Amino acid sequence: MKKKASFNFYFDSPPEAALIAASLSPELKQKIPKTNVEITHSDNTLLLNIQSNDISSLRAACNSYLRWINTAISVKQLI
Prior knowledge:
elongated
């Protein structure tokens, strides 16, 4: 059975959500083993969906993507 995790992020504006989604696009090209990751954005919302074959791979993917999103937000605030 596939394990799943979904996260919704709400931003102040649609361009901010698009910027964070775009900053994650290189990470999507580098596949995490045993996982399928999808990122979509609409208006000021970014949706992160992660599916995995096992819980340890799901946990690793969640940790990685959440950390990358946090880093992108932190960098944006500095600029």
